[in-house]
Amino acid sequence: MDIICENENFVKGVELLDRYLSIKPKDKFSRIIAKKGEVNSATLDNGTLYISFRSLNDCYALLGKALAEKRSGFTVSVEKRIKDTGVMLDCARNAVIKPTQAKKMIAVCALLGYNFFELYVEDCLEVDGEPYFGYMRGRFTQAELKDLDGYAKIFGVELTLCIQALAHLERLFFHWREYYDILDKRDVLLVDEPRTYLLLENVIKTCRKCLSTNRINIGMDEAFDLGLGKFLVKHGYEERGSIIRRHLKKVIEICEKYNFKPAMWADMFYEDMKAGKYEGIPKEVELIYWDYRIKREGTVKTRFDQIRPSGAGYSFAGCATKYLGFAPHNGYSRLAIDSEMEELEQSGVNTYRLTAWGDDGGEAAQFSILPTCCYFSAKNQSSSFEYAQEICKVISGYTYDEFLTLDAVNYLNDDKKYDDLFNPCKYLFYTDPFIGVEEVAALPTYPGIYKKISKKLNPLRKRQSEYSYLFDTAYALSRFLELKSYMVEELYFAYKAKNRKALENSLERLKKSVSRLTAFMRAYETQWFTECKPFGYEIQQIRMNGSKARLQYAVKRIDEYLAGKTEKIEELEETKYFQPLTEGEFRGKLYHLYIANATYGKI
Fold this sequence. Notes:
Elements: E1 2-5, H1 8-17, H2 25-28, E2 31-36, E3 41-45, E4 48-53, H3 56-68, E5 74-77, E6 84-90, H4 99-111, E7 116-120, H5 142-154, E8 158-162, H6 176-179, H7 194-210, E9 215-217, H8 230-235, H9 240-257, E10 261-265, H10 270-274, E11 286-290, H11 299-307, E12 313-319, H12 330-346, E13 351-356, H13 370-380, H14 385-396, H15 400-403, H16 424-430, H17 446-461, H18 468-484, H19 487-496, H20 500-531, H21 537-562, H22 570-573, H23 595-598
Parallel strand pairs: 1-2, 2-4, 6-7, 6-13, 7-8, 9-10, 10-11, 11-12, 12-13
Antiparallel strand pairs: 3-4, 3-5
Helix pairs in contact: 3-14, 4-5, 7-9, 12-13, 13-14, 17-18, 18-20, 19-20, 20-21
């Protein structure tokens, strides 16, 4: 296939896309002729794709539109409702994406029309003068970041970083001797301490060495313990708002020194702005309003009406939800996007981040959010849902709807409403067979539901695709949950009733569940090492092998009980306070953290 374009990066990029796409440009076009012009349009005529583009990024978006077209002749255009859009990938919750996979994500983002790609790193980057910063966390090396920055330019994408300049640095303070003096409380830096600003300057200076962009996200969200630890002891009580304003001005000065224009999450100013307190909020910063739930009508507009009088720049962060366990919530994310777009336009928002958080260990796959990325692209370009279906298939070999099968392990019914967040894929996975957390209740129908889900996933995992590992992991998960999902209740009721036959059946299910958990662990390891660096995987191993050991322990104890070697199982002698599920809760509950599911004890 011939590619004719005065911009050599586009020629390089199209050639690189061959390694990432299921339907490749050479499969559909005999020639591509791309020229810079006044309009964004692409026309297919007799096998040749003619592209007129305003920017390199637009050129890739037009190529994506053309690849998703089924017609033999067509003209398509790209006009974005929000001009400046990007995907932010969490690399600080153990799952640090491999540079090769980050390149793949950059190329996909370009094809979908996103013009920046942000890595959320906290301490996961190599910083001059700070050898313990990101130590043993899979941190990005400076060489890796420089390489990614150059790669992103080929696709007309800006590589940006989100650091943390105030809170969310609990892993940093693990290095007690090095950073104890600048710990305020829990995960918050000590404001007004010279070593704090030396550290932040070292971080920001490193970002300048590695990146060509002038953007930087300095974080500074959820600093709830600010001023309540060492700061309180050293300086006495000071209102949190005045502390963060003073600190922000100092961080902005460092950013300006290195030619960065900072953005920060806006939540620490929400209450002040709601009360009309704007004094001291610097105008040099962009305030990012983040909201990841389905919005009530007027919510987004109201928040921006509160932010606008500050005089600062403002933008929005939505969510490709993958932070609640092993499976994503693409269906929910779609409804959230639908609920926010009109009000974002009305509020004059020019920048949108689609965040992909990985709270509590980075459990869900980085690429499990692909359909949400495709759907926002379609929505932002005022394209039909069919485009989201087809561009997803172009990239992966799976349609948007087929990808939603990954969500199914969290929605234990067939209504496909996706209008709330549940994560039984996590809490049913980790709830202990003997010491189940009381609120984690299950129904006897759950095993049958998971069996149906695994049947849907089985043919998808067998498809020839670079993304089939996602469906293989989900299949192994649903197979395990088929046995595990009602296990706590089943064991308890059988034991209390002294029903030997039921206990024998439970014992056999327990033994099989160990085997199926082992199969899931193998599939999950393949998924992790396909996408991420090895650092952080140790957490998954510790958790999963702990669960496996507890299942094996339960097998041993029940076997001994049935053989008459022990008179009772103490854990099952306790009265369990199961919270009965209501009709609406049939779809599941929401338990965020591993430690809230595994035990009543202290981990």
